[in-house]
Amino acid sequence: xxxxxxxxxxxxxxxxxxxxxxxxxxxxxxxxxxxxxxxxxxxxxxxxxxxxxxxxxxxxxxxxxxxxxxxxxxxxxxxxxxxxxxxxxxxxxxxxxxxxxxxxxxxxxxxxxxxxxxxxxxxxxxxxxxxxxxxxxxxxxxxxxxxxxxxxxxxxxxxxxxxxxxxxxxxxxxxxxxxxxxxxxxxxxxxxxxxxxxxxxxxxxxxxxxxxxxxxxxxxxxxxxxxxxxxxxxxxxxxxxxxxxxxxxxxxxxxxxxxxxxxxxxxxxxxxxxxxxxxxxxxxxxxxxxxxxxxxxxxxxxxxxxxxxxxxxxxxxxxxxxxxxxxxxxxxxxxxxxxxxxxxxxxxxxxxxxxxxxxxxxxxxxxxxxxxxxxxxxxxxxxxxxxxxxxxxxxxxxxxxxxxx
Length: 405
Fold this sequence. Notes:
Number of domains: 2
Distance between the termini: 16 Å
CATH topology of the largest domain: Spore Coat Polysaccharide Biosynthesis Protein SpsA, Chain A
Oligomer: single chain
Structural class: alpha/beta
CATH class of the largest domain: Alpha Beta
Largest sheet: 7 strands, mixed
């Protein structure tokens, strides 16, 4: 299968992200969760300004990116970048360092060192200088002799995760070759730095180990914990959306309970009604007490889950002819829910709300910070919007044979 590119129109980066699609090897249960996570990763990387490539071969992905980018992050669909911008910020800072490879480097004793497939970074300058070498697949039972790297005495955890590795001098016998053996040996034998991911990297990504169903079942509690936290605990106390300079004199606002961005666009003289909605009751309670008191503004606070409920919008606003804004924010591409809701369903629900708004308030303005389809098509984020059919989306390989087509 050819390599698919999911370009970001926000891109001004020298880093490409390459997702190696091995979902066909997963247990069916794990596959469905990971497809949801991988879909969101495309959206997330687009929003962060990075181009994403998807393919079955890490070697082909690297070759595809070698002449256009300076660095490549190669990762598994089972890896999720969490905690907002933190992984990306840490990576950008690390580019000041000299390295060929950065990732999880594991001492496998009888096997030569492993570069864990979950996530690693390649400096494409050194990659091209060494003629775009293969990463090196795992080969069990491959007895061989080669130079043994030096490693730290301490470990990040257990006894196989050194905090640093470097080139050695003495040869030793190995019984196996692990993933990454070829490119690691090229780097270490040529004294080009290999860096081990430190805690800031490890804490800001999550690998679910879908390649091992027993380990995966122990990891997916994170998905449910995150969902429950966003549903019951976490409250956005600052704006998660941005004001649009095209909007002025708005008289009716429909917005999540997550900030006061609307104060810049509402009418300063005519009566204004603001409906704050949220699926998180705690968020609603917070904003009942924190919403700015403005003489011409009245509020309503509505417990509403846009992903699951069907409602009549007329119950929230008395007038269809007033200047109205419906802020749907990132409801259909929200980190707290995406793992449990397939993109096809999220897009279906997004289309329901667009149709509902257009029918009840045909002259209103809809605004998103991110849509279900963001990253898969250049769909507009604001204006008088129309639904998007899933057949219009750039389809990733894990959806090619069944649930999208």
